[in-house]
Design goal:
Protein Transport Mog1p, Chain A, 2 domains, eight-stranded antiparallel sheet, binds zinc ion
């Protein structure tokens, strides 16, 4: 080697060293080292559980169906996914992002990769970096396998504990998870993580942000945005991702180890998507979605109607579909009716027969089943108590016929005709209330509801439904 060559080589080495510091996106300063928690579930279990839960979540939540918004958040998601450190990549995990049309600032991710961000979160973020921060935090929970790690510890948190609590049954068989979580409402989809796990997701989130070319300080900034905008309230991000101590400072400290040259902070695409969302009709809150028992049809296009009901309603189908509800009721209803509601009170209603009015779910057509804990154990008195309590919420409600004896699933029951003026449509409606006692003395009821002008078209369906009722308690 000649002297000249030697010098050139040294210069090249120096140049490489210098450029490594300035050109590589992530510096070589010591980052916080994270490790996976012990986990008795396999990577395959994560994938399987996440898929089941995602299918349920998409039944329960109204997804935003907007191609521009969807492809944008997917692109940001892909960019972050590509930046997951290799030690936290798991074979078979498939990351995806979908937007829920809800106004609360929230996001959640399921084991194995499905992530959901609320439209409210995108609208609240001040720039793309803040939105990406929340997504990087969620991806970190998945990559660190926090859901099944938490379940391994046997903590009773949220959805996974619910699914895993009944154990092998579910992981093995088809009967379990969906049925188990179907009735539990929206809240169960929010895994409530421990503060230790929150810190880990913040730190790995910051590292992923930097590796993807974002400024990790935007993750810290997003937590301030969330707090300022009430994300700490129930149903908000902080109720499922509780803040560890000094969250903001800890993320910024990590950010110092992660210098990024010319980070992406904001983009025109983000501004365009945000303007598009802000210009769309207001989204419901998660609580409103939960109350309305929103079901998002798999075939698409059917977000929960923002309008009061009152459109045209089809005749009841003559084909029936059987359901098991309330833990002891089997009933058949026309197969063009949809199930809405929850564990305590379930509705079956045709398309157009329900909607929203003043942020409440309102029904004009259909049947409702439930159980009422009345003071009286006498059927007639208990039924009267129920009518009185219904009348408190519906001031135009009147009893129009005397009680008549009927048989419900082989038991003595009562029927009463009522009329009401529907608060959303202003129409007079006719209601038939049917009651009987459950074995423990509670009052089981069926309400059959239709506008007075259509009552005759619905009468035979209501009769068929009543005849199909089987109580097994
Ligand atoms: Zn979290």
């Amino acid at each position: 080697m000649t002297r000249n060559n030697y010098q050139r080589t040294r210069l090249l080495i120096v140049w490489f060293a210098v450029s490594a510091i300035f050109l590589m996106p992530v510096s070589v300063f010591p980052q916080t080292k994270l490790t996976l928690h012990s986990n008795k579930y396999s990577v395959q279990d994560d994938i399987k559980l996440g898929r089941q839960a995602a299918a349920e979540a998409e039944q329960q939540f109204p997804l935003l169906r907007d191609g521009e918004v969807s492809s944008y958040v997917e692109r940001v998601g892909n960019r972050l996914e590509a930046a997951i450190p290799s030690e936290f990549r798991h074979p078979g995990f498939q990351y995806s992002v979908r937007v829920i049309n809800a106004r609360d600032i929230n996001a959640f991710a399921l084991p194995g990769g499905p992530m959901y961000v609320n439209r409210g979160m995108i609208e609240a973020a001040r720039r793309e970096g803040e939105m990406a921060g929340v997504m990087a935090h969620e991806i970190s929970h998945v990559a660190l396998r926090h859901g099944t790690a938490q379940a391994t510890k046997g903590q009773k948190y949220g959805l996974l504990a619910g699914i895993l609590g009944i154990g092998g049954q579910i992981l093995g068989g088809p009967a379990g998870a969906a049925a188990q979580i179907a009735g539990q409402g929206v809240g169960v989809y929010f895994l409530k993580f421990s503060r230790e796990y929150e810190t880990e997701a913040d730190i790995l989130g910051a590292q992923i942000m930097a590796r993807a070319g974002y400024d990790p300080r935007d993750l810290a900034a997003m937590f301030q945005t969330i707090e300022r905008q009430g994300g700490g309230s129930s149903g908000g991000f902080l109720s499922s991702h509780p803040s560890p101590q000094n969250r903001y400072a800890r993320i910024n400290q990590e950010a110092q180890y992660l210098r990024v040259q010319n980070p992406i902070r904001d983009t025109e695409e983000f501004a365009r998507v945000q303007a598009r969302l802000r210009g769309s009709p207001a989204a419901p809150s998660m609580a409103e979605i939960a109350r309305s028992g929103q079901r998002n049809p798999a075939e698409g296009g059917g977000n929960y109607p923002q309008d009061a009901p009152g459109g045209r309603v089809d005749y009841p189908s003559t084909r029936y579909r059987s359901y098991n509800e309330l833990g002891f009721l089997t009933v058949s209803v026309p197969d063009n009716w949809r199930k809405l509601g929850d564990n305590d009170s379930v509705w079956f209603s045709p398309e157009g027969g329900y909607g929203q009015y003043q942020n409440q779910a309102v029904f004009t057509h259909g049947v409702n089943f439930g159980v009422s804990r009345t003071q009286s154990r006498d059927l007639r008195q208990a039924t009267q108590e129920l009518i009185n309590s219904l009348a408190q919420g519906n001031r135009s409600l009147r009893q129009s016929t005397n009680f008549q004896r009927v048989t419900v699933s082989g038991r003595a029951g009562l029927s009463a005709g009522l009329t009401n003026v529907n608060e959303a449509t202003g129409q007079t409606e006719s209601i038939t209330l049917i009651t009987t006692q459950s074995r423990n003395g509670d009052l089981f009821y069926m309400v059959a509801l239709a506008p007075q002008s259509e009552a005759r078209s619905f009468a035979s369906a209501f009769n068929n439904i009543l005849r199909s009722v089987r109580l097994d308690d």
